[in-house]
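Query form — protein Phosphoadenosine phosphosulphate reductase domain-containing protein

QUESTION: What is the three-dimensional structure of this chain?
INPUT:
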Amino acid sequence: MLASDRPAPSARPRDIDYIRVAEPAPVVLAYGIGVDSTALLVELESRGTPPDLVITGDPGIEKPETYVYQEMMAAWMAARGIRYETVRYTPKRFKHWPPYYDLLANVLTNATLPSISLGRHSCSLKWKVAPQDAFLKQWEPAKAAWARGQKVIRLIGYDASPADTRRYNHASAIANDLFECRYPLREWGWNRAACIARIEAAGLPVPPKSSCWLLCLQMVSRLTATLYLWATKLS
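ANSWER: The structure tokens for Phosphoadenosine phosphosulphate reductase domain-containing protein are given below.
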């Protein structure tokens, strides 16, 4: 047999190339039920990029009108297939009896004031941020992302106004191994007026200012005490 008659050796099949594409990191919107976070939610939904989860940390003593607005927005999200969770801080150790499960009972049981009255904001961290973090640490999409070496994307409703710029400057300086905080309203250059306009354009009422009514009562009591002292000096 001539060499030319021999069949050519078959080429070794080429290995298949694989491109490993990771799942996108889950996106969570921290919803404070106020103007900024509501405008952010509405705009994201209208762009076709709703968050994977919207979550609210409830201290238990928001103003009644805030809870009414929350119920309305919960229905709005449900109609659009957006998952919404409300979480609360669960105390585990109690200094005094009886046990407490919201900020008001905490204040009454321990005979203290919310930390914001002393110029600090630990009550917000304890009653709003901490329960959100606790929930997310058990949320399967977050656990899967962390297992892949990703961070969960947390959307924060800080607008481009001077007041929120100060809050942003403080928050953005804090490193976090689990979450990547993003501030879309600032990226879009939206101030509070723009947020209000966006909510109204969606046919929604503008939410009331979100704050616990205990702080409102405290402000009234301060004013009452100041007026009393001022009046006694005049008498």
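ADDITIONAL NOTE: The chain has one domain: 24-234.
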